[in-house]
Design a protein that fits this description.
Helix content of chain A: 25-40%
Number of strands of chain A: 9
CATH architecture of chain B: Alpha-Beta Complex
Mean pLDDT of chain B: 87
Mean pLDDT of chain A: 94
CATH class of the largest domain in chain A: Alpha Beta
Oligomer: heterodimer
Radius of gyration of chain B: 15 Å
CATH architecture of the largest domain in chain A: 3-Layer(aba) Sandwich
Largest sheet of chain B: 4 strands, mixed
CATH class of chain B: Alpha Beta
Number of domains of chain A: 2
Strand order of the largest sheet of chain A: 1-5-4-2-3
Number of helices of chain A: 11
Structural class of chain A: alpha/beta
Number of domains of chain B: 1
CATH topology of the largest domain in chain A: Oxidized Rhodanese, domain 1
């Protein structure tokens, strides 16, 4: 792993197993399937639900500083706690939660390589009871949306300036073949296709079968062969920003790209946005 | 029931799905879901001459709540007419699963019911032309890359 630009942000399942009772560590499970935590979780892990815990319920946005402080305090996370994120779906939501924690400037964030899938595949122990910890008095910085988050107007300028975008959705979504599925029109868009100039590099290409990240060499080849190079300002997007969090993590931390932003509005915004150009 | 009991109820349906599998020669076979989200379900239905459900089964894959909801709905609709299924409220399903537990994933919870309602709605017009309602399974190929 030393070949990654920032190997310190990735820990292996064995490392986590050795640190289950480490008081300086808090393990956080973030899943798409919200009941997986109840099915069984890494002993001592707390649950953070991206939908319930991280979202503003009125505005399409993330929670504010006050609510972030309350959330982390309730999970027994202090300012100097090392938070280990893991989850289902190849760590999509773990990377998403990691990204939100970074918006608020939490310093010590790491991802468990391989996520929930690998932990279970290795027959490691699972706990069912909810883990509780003494409340802390977490003090967060104001949320900083300027460095790692992109908004639609910025994306528009980015497109106009000919800067690189990575569309991490499936090829069918990228081509416009898929808008949405029966029963799920809410997650679709009026138009199918992609943001002009975006390269289609599905998030899954950065992951191995066991859910772990591919090697630095493989990742470099994957992105640089498509013109996504570290000298450029890169924006990644998907449908709502969860899969692109995975790619954001790869580019920013595993490959060390200095300017990578996640466009969390993604296709559910751009595909419906009046005046926004698309390509098919 | 408290939250933990609702969760146990859902996990029981997930781990021991009721009416799971396919029906040979169904009158209705409908697919629903969102491969982009990972939830897909196929509902199979046999009906009698009065369009009353005599058998219903499901297959699928997806999150705990979507699969438990599909299992539960098969129990709720047996013996009902297709018209009754079309008009069924969502409340009994949501209440049994625990509104507080599933409220942030209502689309998952109602995936099986919505799919079944779609089949119930379409079937009479197909039947009038002497056909069954058999939709092909589509779009599962996107699962691997999404």
């Amino acid at each position: 792993m030393s070949e990654y630009a920032h190997p310190e942000v990735l820990v292996e399942t064995e490392w986590v197993a050795q640190h289950l009772n480490d008081k300086d560590i808090r393990i956080v499970e973030s899943d798409e399937d919200i009941l997986l935590y109840e099915v069984g979780h890494v002993p001592g892990a707390v649950k953070i639900d991206w939908h319930v815990d991280l979202q503003n319920t009125i505005v399409r946005d993330y929670i504010d500083r006050k609510n972030f402080q309350m959330l982390l305090s309730s999970r027994g996370i202090a300012n100097d706690t090392t938070v280990v994120f893991y989850g289902d779906k190849n760590n999509w939501w773990a990377c998403y939660a990691f990204w939100v924690f970074k918006l608020f400037g939490h310093e010590k964030c790491v991802v468990m390589n391989g996520g929930r899938q690998k932990w279970i595949a290795e027959n490691r122990p699972l706990a069912k009871d909810q883990s509780t910890y003494a409340h802390t008095n977490y003090v967060a910085k104001e949320r900083d949306d300027t460095k790692i988050r992109a908004f639609r107007d910025q994306v528009m300028k980015h497109v106009t300036g000919g800067n690189p975008l990575v569309d991490v959705r499936s090829p069918q979504e990228y081509s416009g073949e898929l808008l949405h599925m029966p029963g799920y029109p809410q997650e679709g868009a009026l138009r199918g296709g992609h943001i002009p100039g975006a390269k289609n590099i599905p998030w899954a290409k950065a992951a191995r079968e066991d859910g772990t990240f591919k090697s630095a060499e493989e990742l470099k080849e994957l992105y640089q062969s498509q013109g996504i190079t570290p000298d450029k300002d890169v924006i990644a997007y998907c449908r709502i920003g969860e899969r692109s969090s995975h790619t954001w993590f790869v580019l920013q931390y595993l490959l060390g790209y200095p300017k990578v932003r996640n466009y969390d509005g993604s296709w559910t915004e751009w595909g419906n946005l009046v005046g926004a150009p698309i390509e098919k | 029931m408290d939250r933990r009991e609702y969760i146990e109820f859902i996990l029981d349906h997930y781990n021991n799905p009721r009416n799971h599998g396919a029906i040979d020669d169904p009158d209705i076979l409908v697919n629903g879901g969102n491969p982009g989200c990972g939830d897909v379900v196929t509902m199979y239905v046999k009906v009698d001459d009065d369009n009353r459900v005599t058998d219903v089964k499901f297959e699928g894959r997806g999150c705990t709540i979507s699969m438990a909801g599909a299992s539960l709905v098969t129990e709720l609709v047996k013996g009902k007419t297709l018209k009754e299924i079309e008009e069924m409220p969502y409340t009994p399903l949501i209440d049994q699963m625990g509104e507080d537990v599933v409220k942030s994933r209502l689309r998952c919870a109602t995936l099986g019911m919505d799919t079944l309602k779609g089949g119930a709605r379409e079937y009479p017009s197909r039947k009038a032309t002497g056909q069954k309602l058999i939709q092909p399974i589509v779009l599962a190929h996107t699962l691997s890359t999404d």
